[in-house]
Amino acid sequence: MIEGTPSDYQRILVLAAHIDDGEFGCGASISKWVDEGRDVYYVALSSADKSVPAGMPKDILEKEVRQATKVLGIRTSNLMIFKFPVREFPQHRQEILQTLIGLGDQLRPQLVLLPSTNDTHQDHQTLSGEGFRAFKRHSIAGYEMPYNNLNFSTDLFVVLDEHHVGKKAAALKCYRSQAVKPYATPDFITSLARVRGVQIGVQYAEAFEVIRWIVT
Ligand SMILES: [Zn+2]
């Protein structure tokens, strides 16, 4: 059992299948949590080398994630990148589970963020499932990726100000190799944060699926 109530959570672990997923799913909340002095760890299971457009260096995404997480305020020592092959996570399910269990022992997070249970991307789905297995004794929230989700359950909202939404857009701008993605634009990022904000009567928010919530 992890001690504390949600607002006390000091150690937060963001799990990303591919290196930009955490920024897309909860970049603005990460920026807020860092501002509040919480320890945010960012773990990407794949550097997604195969997703690098032709003609660009294979390590460009790794360089970009270092810049993007820096924009969000995550300490370099809190960033970890693994080398599971992109689009092949289902075949590596057991190794991924062992990796996540090891991370849990090492980092002892109080809140874990991962792809939602309705994310249809095979790598995100694997991380969501194995993440629950590894962290089921922790509070877990699923982040929103509207272009992958079959459904999304808006159970939990993090209220944000414009500064945090701006940091998310600035972090995603670091991924020059992924700039063609329509959901990487500041317009999309701000619009989604407005939609989630309007739902709860504030300017901006990010929404999460509550997968497990422990209150002591
Ligand atoms: Zn992804």
Spans of at least 5 consecutive residues with low confidence: none
Radius of gyration: 16 Å
Number of helices: 6
Largest sheet: 7 strands, mixed
Fraction of residues in helices? 25-40%
Strand content: 15-25%
Number of strands: 7
Helix-strand blueprint:
Elements: E1 11-18, H1 21-35, E2 39-46, H2 60-72, E3 79-81, H3 93-107, E4 111-115, H4 122-135, E5 139-143, E6 156-160, H5 162-173, H6 186-199, E7 204-212
Parallel strand pairs: 1-2, 1-4, 2-3, 4-5
Antiparallel strand pairs: 5-7, 6-7
Molecular structure report:
- The protein is an alpha/beta fold and 216 residues long.
- Helices cover 38% and strands 20% of the residues.
- It has helices spanning 21-35, 60-72, 93-107, 122-135, 162-173, 186-199, and strands at 11-18, 39-46, 79-81, 111-115, 139-143, 156-160, 204-212.
- Strands 3-2-1-4-5-7-6 form a 7-stranded mixed beta sheet, sandwiched between helices.
- Helix 1 (21-35) links the parallel strand 1 (11-18) and strand 2.
- Helix 2 packs antiparallel against helix 5.
- The protein is globular, with a radius of gyration of 16 Å.
- It starts with 10 loop residues before the first strand and ends with a strand.
- The model has no long low-confidence stretch (mean pLDDT 93).
- Zinc ion binds next to strand 1.
